[in-house]
Amino acid sequence: MKESEVAVAPKQQQQSVVCSYNEWDPLEEIIVGRIDGAVVPNLTREFKTFAKPEYWDFFRKYGGKPYPEDLLLKGMKALDNLQMVLEDQGVIVKRPDVIDFTKTYRTMHFESSGFNSGNARDFLLVIGDEIIESPMAYRCRYFEYEAYRSLIKDYFKKGARWTAGPKCSMSDELYDQTFPVDDIEESKKLILSGRYITTEYEPCFDGADFTRFGRDILVSRSLVTNNFGIEWMRRHLGPEYRIHVTRFYDDSPMHMDTTWVPIGEGRVLSCPERPCLDSNILDMFKTAGWEIHKPPPGLCPPQIPLHLTSRWLSMNIIMLDQNRVVVEASEEPTIKFLKNLGLKTVPVDIKGFFPFGGGLHCATCDIRRKGTLRSYFGN
Ligand code: DAV
Fold first, then answer.
1. Across all residues in the chain, what is the average pLDDT?
2. Given a cut of 90, is residue 10 above it in pLDDT?
3. How many whole angstroms separate alpha carbon 36 and alpha carbon 58?
4. Any idea which of 4-13, 45-54, 153-162, 266-275 has the lowest mean pLDDT?
5. Does 16 contact ligand 1 (Cβ within 6 A)?
6. What's the pLDDT score for residue 58?
7. What are the residue ranges of helices labelled H in the chain?
8. What is the pLDDT of residue 378?
9. pLDDT value at position 15?
């Protein structure tokens, strides 16, 4: 690469091409993931705690193989629908590269095949003008970063800051070898008591476990985000941001974007099945005058296999700004509920993507929203 191609970050530019501080400022550019060539993860010991037990047979049958074609085509179509709807609303959409997830790979510690790059929110976290690559904890996601590198290099050349969290070795020490993965009831009990399949051996986190409210960022200890990872983020971001570790009642915590979802300054959706357990966090929201709204349950029809997620993907929404929200088209109770809150709903047929591990918020990563760094909770 020529030197002139790298040194292009203009110091004085008004807003970096990458710039986003919260979940609701007017959206200008976003990444929508891709599942071309998706491969079903192997049902390894640790993966049993990530996959829904009613679908373990699916993983036993297809693990290491491409997804069945009908599921794959519907999923790809769903992400294309999302791209079209977002573009229709005036948002610039970028997509990652297609990489070969069928290739098996071997590191010093393990062997695996890949997964998919549909859930951009897990791997990438944008805070201000910085893109942070997450050190994710699934072995089948070890090389997922490759799908995003062309995009990230391009954003870097245009002025973004680029950081990669310390890559996980994903050696056996990262997974609690005594965790009773086959005893589902016991596993749930342990998780509710604060024990997880991931240990504190090395930092790990998914971007989707962090929810941005300007200077305040909420994060949960989840199946894939450990305290070591949270501490790494706290020190990395420094005193400009306040990281609040938040607990919810959840026997398989995995990402905050179906649990505690801001819909604008002063309003947040709280999943009724997963209430917030921290009175200091609830006080923080109440003192600052935030409204907490409880959406109705999701309806996801039984023909859509939710291999990795709950039905609450219905509240996995994208705010285009504080007035417009993108929502799965068939989730009528949720749509009605959002309309009653005065929002203009923008429906998208995305449910074909649900089997691949997320909804429309999971599938995306905000690149640029028009706004500045602010404090929404006093001081
Ligand atoms: O509700 O099962 C799904 C979120 C995945 N990013 C759930 C969490």
1. 96
2. no
3. 19
4. 4-13
5. no
6. 98
7. 3-6, 56-62, 69-88, 120-123, 149-157, 184-192, 227-237, 279-287, 332-340
8. 85
9. 73
With 0.85 as the threshold, say if the pTM is over it: yes
Distance between Cα 93 and ligand 1 center (Å): 23
Provide CB contacts within 8 A for 309, sequence distance 6+: 52, 254, 258, 354, 357, 358, 359
Strand partners, 375: 214
Indicate if the pLDDT at residue 14 is higher than 60: no
Ramachandran class of 214: left when φ > 0, alpha when ψ lies in -120 to 50, beta otherwise? left
295 close to 288: Cβ distance less than 8 angstroms: no
Judging by beta carbons within 10 Å of its beta carbon (0-12, 13-18, 19+), is residue 194 exposed, middle or buried?
A: exposed
Atom in ligand 1 nearest the alpha carbon of residue 312:
1
Q: Going by CATH, does the domain composed of 15-369 fall within 2.60.120.620?
A: no
Ligand 1 pocket test, pick from 308, 311, 318, 328 with the greatest ligand atom count within 8 Å of Cβ, gives: 308
Give backbone dihedrals phi and psi of 31, rounded to 5 degrees, phi first: -100, 135
d(CA 103, CA 273): 39
